[in-house]
Structures are given as structure tokens and as C-alpha cells.
Design goal:
Two copies of one chain form a homodimer. By secondary structure, chain A is α+β, with helices and mostly antiparallel strands. In chain A, 32% of the residues lie in helices and 22% in strands. The first copy, chain A, is elongated, with a radius of gyration of 23 Å. The N terminus of chain A is likely disordered. At the A-B interface, α5 and α8 of A face α5 and α8 of B.
Chain lengths: 408, 408
């Protein structure tokens, strides 16, 4: 396999997923396929394609339960060849070529084929089944997430690089925040800073209805607005057409400002929140922010392998109750969320969830964005969010931003 | 119906879709449903929901073939009530409540129900069909686009407001461009300028595989890189994980820079491209840019009601041939696109397409982004892109940016 580095950039060595990573992932998903009696997995979704092949070029990946995977590339073969740790890459004109190719390469078609049915639209699926003519189709996405939820050491290193960029960006925001800037303007300034340093800008989300964007900057009352997001606070947004995140409201002095920023470097996301205030933080908001930090720290202490996800969630609710903020915790009455954390990696929200009734236990290598938040109706939102990894010794923060309230 | 304006923003009157627009759209889609023997349409996708209801809050819209539509809102009812021109809004806890509500409100369930099968994932569809228990499901998306492709005067006015913002932003870029800025850095500066003035930042795309982002800024050789996009030029992007659009390459003097920027104001998109150069544009790039402008202008002259889409496409190819640039036109050999324009409105790419073999004819109210582009392998990309509306008198530019090469 030859992997040249012809990517035009700033002279840095181009980012590549190590071949060894791709091989380990392939071996693991093949074990899953075998255990579940699935003969092959057909991957179309771009993030899964990148995860299993190292390239996000236009194409499809076929992973048989046994043997070598084949990467089918529509466009652009030279970039895919250069980027991918997959040995066998075939250039195609159209997906119509794929079934015949699979039959040739593997000496026949699989009997049971897995698709990403959590994202594949009905019309696409109907087309695929017409051209593949296979007996049985199953949803391969749970198997994929069974792998993706456990990050390798290399993946944790990538997330740590993203964390370095977010720490710098939060430092920048500490200096740059000024009264009179609109939420959206300040968010754009922070993003400019980060994009100059490698932030890809586009946040990856999986479900077609999920709104993903890096600029969840909410000041004062805008933090207290419920809205379309499954989040404690949705924000005003720029208009009724995009009613989430930063809006046109100007940031003022002496008001609580919740800055929740998504960041992506080389495909790996971080999702972090800190409370900011210019000059001073009002007392109630400061108390709420400190309680959020306390919950965050106590949950982290408890987040060891073997602990159930819902145990962490209920533990946080108990602390909130004991501190007298149950009414505000996790959102306004009638609009509370039932989670305090979500998996994170190549997408900003991934299974698993630290949530009510989630019985799965923490395992080493799982990464979560932990975000205990509260909403005081008609007043403000308060909270904190960090990303951590579960290790054998317990939770370790990936986030490098100080866990404190920023008074600027 | 009461519609208060409680949205916290900069004191401007909040943007609302007029009630009259919603009523006309409802009447039109109901005619389509009746003509196609579909008893009702169930709308979940956010942009369609906004189009037919005026709100993008978390919910679903049911439009029966006859009678009043019902908007079901999970979250957040007060915002939906304030924004929407739909009279009948019902607050729900879950989509599980919807079938029973429909049966009650309409005295029974529809026999044939339309869903947005072009975007609805298989797992969601399977869930919907389980809870709806209806005889026949059809794809409602072609009917939706049959309406959406013809813009009302009010919609054209919205796009004109977006066009004013892009014209200002291109003027800003003319001043702000400097050698040594990276593509991504310069793109982020331009976006900051625009986001301060209302640009929502997130580009709306429909299909789950489409990469939508506003920062398609490609300089020099980066313009000549084929990649995953169905576009003449894909760009370097920030890494193998997001290999499209602006990259880390620094902008230089005397090189062709293709700036293709998406913009959204109040939900309405524009998509425009101009060639920039600092100090001077190399001769071949200047010639290519001028030919692109010539093709753009000649196609516009011909774009009258009754002309077929493919006629415009083939006409552009003929001009390119007669000017001796057939080899570069529409992309590198083997990677050419087969379109020069796409519909645009609430999503950045909408049907119809000015493309090979598209026999549909132009109708008044259709809006297109017209983008004749060319790629010189290993050298650069050149092109131009404007948005126009088809009127009874012919094409009228919505774009307000001068159609010229910008030497800065």
C-alpha cells in the first residue's frame, strides 16, 4: 500500500488514521458480524465510512464477516487511496456497479446484509434493496456504535488535541468578550479564532432532525428559553427559521452568559460549556453555576467502570435536590431533559447517554460530554460541560479548560 | 389567532412568515393531494415544517387533503403559537399521541398517507408505520417540491434581503482579503461579518450525505482538486475527515481564488461565487473567468419561461466548446458534473436542476443558482455563480454582487 502526502495544506504532515487502527476496527466489527449471524455490512454514511476506512471521499465500504473489506470509490480515487488504510480499493462510476463487484470479489452475495438503517432514507434503502437483491436486511448501526463507543488510545489522543484547541479558544474568549457584542457576533469571533487553528466548523450530527452547530452562546434571558432542542436551553437563534443557539441579543454586563461550544479537529469533537460574566455574575446565577460545578465534579468522582449510566444520572438529581435547585435542574418544569451526558467522538452526540433508565455500565474507553445544566424561567441558564474518558482508575477529564466560572 | 412578538432580539420586529403565505401553501398542497389521491401528508422534516407552518419548533404537521391542518408541537408550544400561521396547534408529549389525535380531530384515519420518504430514515419510518397503522404510504416529497420550486413574491423578497447581505459581505471581502490568510481563516472572517448581520451560519441541506457549509473558498491549486462533492471543485478541506471547502492553504498574491459562499437570512439561502485575486489575476485564469461570465450572461438571456432545463445546459456546453475550453468546462476529465444550476430557497440545493437530460421547462417563480465553472487540472478553478428568478419577461438576477472579477 502506498500512501503519499500530496494534500495541499500549510506544510504540516497531513492527518491520517493509522493503518493499524483501521485493521483493529475491521477485526472487531467482523467479530460482531459473526456473532450476530450477519454476512456483511454495507457502509454509506460518511462518518462511519471515515471510521472504518480513514477516508471520507464519496464511496461505500463493504465489510464481509470474514476476509478483506472493499472500499468502492466514486470520487476521488487518488485522495481515497492516499488517505485510507484499506488495502482493496475499487473505483466505481455508480453504486449500480457495487453488487456485481461484491459477487465477483467474494464469490457470491451475502445472505444477510447490514445497512445503517438509523440514517438511511427510505427511498435510498428501497433503491439499494432493488439493486442488491439480497434475502435479508438488518440494521447494522447498533453494531457500529458498539465499536465506536469505545475509543482507542489513538482516538483519545485526537480528542486531547481538540481539547487543547478549545482551551486556547476559551482563553481567547475570556479576553475578547465585550458588552455590546451580539451573541452571534461573539460566537463568530470565537469560531474564527478556532477555524484559523484547524477547527473544521461543521459539527457532525447523525439523525436528520438534529441541529448541530458550534455556536450555542446564550446570554441572560435567552438562556431561559425552551425550544426545539432536547436540551435544557435552546436559545433564541437568528430567526423562526433557525430558532436555536446564539441570537441577535447583545451581551450585557453583570448577566450570566452560558457559552457552549462545539469544536472539531481532524474529525474528533469536543463539546464544552462554561459560564461567563462581564464585570460580575449576579448572586443567584453564581450560586447555580457553583452547584452545577459541584454536581459535575461529584459525578466525575463516581464515574468508574462498572457503574450504571442511570446511577450517575439519578445521583446528580439527588445532589440537585439536596442543594434546593430541583425545580430548575435539567430545564424548566415540563421541559426537563432526562440526561446529563452523551457519548462524543466523530459525532458530537453518540450513544451512550448518561440518562434516566439507561442500565448499561461504564467501560474503559467510553467518552462522554457531561453537562449538568439548569434553567431559571424568564431569568437565565446555568451549567457546565466537560468531556471525560472512562479509564480503569475512574474518569479522567479530556477537557483542559479550568472548571470554574469566568468573570471577565 | 394571537401572534405576540416576545422574541428577544435586537429590538427589530421579529421575522414571521405571513399568515396569508401559509394559507396559500396549504391550499396548493391540498390540491396536489386531491389530484394524487392521497388523503393526508405527515410532515416531520424541519424545513418542510417551517415552509407549511411558519415555525421550526419541534413537532409535526398533518395536512389532510381537505380541511384544516393540525400542527402537533412537542416543544416549545408558546414559540410555535407565536410564530405559526396555522390556526390549529395541539401540544403533545410524544409522536405516539399523534395517530389518536388525528383520528379524533378528523373522525378517522387517512387511507393513504404521504411521508417525506426522501429523508425519513428506515428506522423512523418503521416506527411511524407501526403507530399509524395505515393501509398505504406514499412518498410526499415530490409534491412538496412541486410547490416549493415556485417561489411567491414574498419569498423572492426574502431572497433579495439575503442578496443585500451577500453583496455587502463580498464588498467586505474585497477590502479584507490579504496574502497570508489561510482559506479557512478568510472564510471565517467573511462569515463573522455576515453572522453579525443576521446570517444564520448553518446551511440547510436535505439529503443526509450532502455536505452543506458556507465556506467554499478555494485558492490556486486547491480549486483544482476533485473530491467528494458533486461539484467541479471540492477543495482541500481541513482534514481527511472533512475534505471539502476551505483548507489550511494560505492565500497568495497573483493567484486565482474562487470564493463560493452560502448565506442564509431568515431561512432563505443564496449561493454565489466570484473570482478574486490579490494584485493580479494570471492571464489564463482571467480568460477562463471571463468565459465563465460570458456563459453565465448568455444563459441568463436565454432563461425564459418555456425553455427546457437541459436546453440551457447544452447551450452552455456549446459556448464552452466554441471558446475552446471544453476540456476544463464543468470539471476535470472523468470528474465533470452534468449540471450548471440548481434550485435554491429554504435549502441551498433544491429541485429543479439545470442539467443534462432534464426536460422540465422553466416557469415563472423558479429560482436557480447558476454556476458555470471550470477546472484546470493541477492549476486552479474558475467560475461564477449568481441566483436568479424566472419571470414572465425572462430571468432577473436576485444577486446584487457585480458580475465581474475582483482584483483586490
Amino acid at each position: 500500500m502506498s500512501r503519499k502526502s500530496a494534500e495541499p495544506n500549510d506544510g504540516q504532515k497531513p492527518f491520517r488514521v493509522p493503518v493499524d487502527e483501521i485493521r483493529k476496527r475491521t477485526a472487531k466489527i467482523q467479530r460482531e458480524l459473526q456473532q450476530n449471524g450477519i454476512d456483511g455490512l454495507f457502509i454509506a454514511q460518511r462518518v462511519d465510512l471515515f471510521y472504518f476506512s480513514g477516508t471520507a471521499q464519496n464511496g461505500f465500504l463493504y465489510i464481509p464477516a470474514e476476509g478483506q473489506p472493499t472500499l468502492f470509490i466514486k470520487q476521488y480515487y487518488p485522495r481515497a487511496r492516499e488517505e485510507s488504510g484499506i488495502d482493496h480499493i475499487v473505483e466505481i462510476d455508480s453504486i449500480r456497479d457495487v453488487p456485481r463487484q461484491i459477487a465477483q470479489i467474494y464469490g457470491g452475495m451475502p445472505e444477510t446484509l447490514g445497512f445503517e438503517l438509523d440514517v438511511l432514507p427510505v427511498n435510498d434503502f428501497n433503491y439499494y434493496t432493488r439493486i442488491f437483491k439480497i434475502k435479508k436486511y438488518v440494521d447494522g448501526s447498533p453494531l457500529i456504535f458498539n465499536l465506536r463507543k469505545i475509543k482507542s488510545d489513538w482516538e483519545i489522543q485526537q480528542m486531547e488535541k481538540t481539547a487543547e484547541l478549545t482551551a486556547k479558544t476559551f482563553e481567547y474568549m475570556r479576553d475578547a468578550i465585550e458588552p455590546g457584542l451580539s451573541e452571534m457576533e461573539f460566537a463568530a469571533m470565537a469560531e474564527s479564532y478556532a477555524r484559523k487553528r484547524g477547527h473544521q466548523g461543521k459539527i457532525r450530527t447523525r439523525h436528520y432532525q438534529t441541529e448541530g452547530y458550534p455556536w450555542h452562546f446564550l446570554s441572560g434571558k435567552n438562556g431561559a428559553m425552551p425550544g426545539l432542542l432536547d436540551a435544557a436551553a435552546s436559545g433564541a437563534g437568528t430567526s423562526a427559521a433557525f430558532p436555536v443557539g446564539a441570537g441577535r441579543k447583545k451581551i450585557g454586563i453583570n448577566e450570566p452568559i452560558m457559552i457552549d461550544m462545539g469544536m472539531v479537529l481532524n474529525g474528533y469533537h469536543l463539546d464544552e460549556t462554561r459560564m461567563f460574566a462581564i464585570e460580575s455574575m449576579p448572586n443567584r446565577a453564581m450560586q447555580a453555576s457553583q452547584i452545577a460545578i459541584e454536581i459535575h465534579n461529584l459525578v466525575l468522582e463516581k464515574a468508574s467502570p462498572g457503574v450504571a449510566l442511570d446511577e450517575l444520572f439519578e445521583y446528580s438529581v439527588k445532589i440537585a435536590e439536596s442543594r434546593g435547585i430541583a425545580e430548575s435542574y435539567l430545564g424548566a418544569a415540563g421541559h426537563k431533559v432526562s440526561f446529563i451526558g452523551h457519548g462524543i467522538g466523530l459525532e458530537i452526540v453518540e450513544p451512550q447517554y448518561i440518562a434516566r433508565n439507561k442500565k448499561e455500565i461504564l467501560q474503559p474507553g467510553m467518552t462522554f460530554a457531561l453537562e449538568p445544566k439548569m434553567v431559571f424561567v424568564d431569568e437565565f441558564a446555568a451549567g457546565v460541560e466537560s468531556v471525560f474518558v472512562v479509564t480503569h482508575k475512574g474518569a479522567r477529564l479530556i477537557t483542559k479548560i479550568p472548571v470554574e466560572v469566568f468573570i471577565c
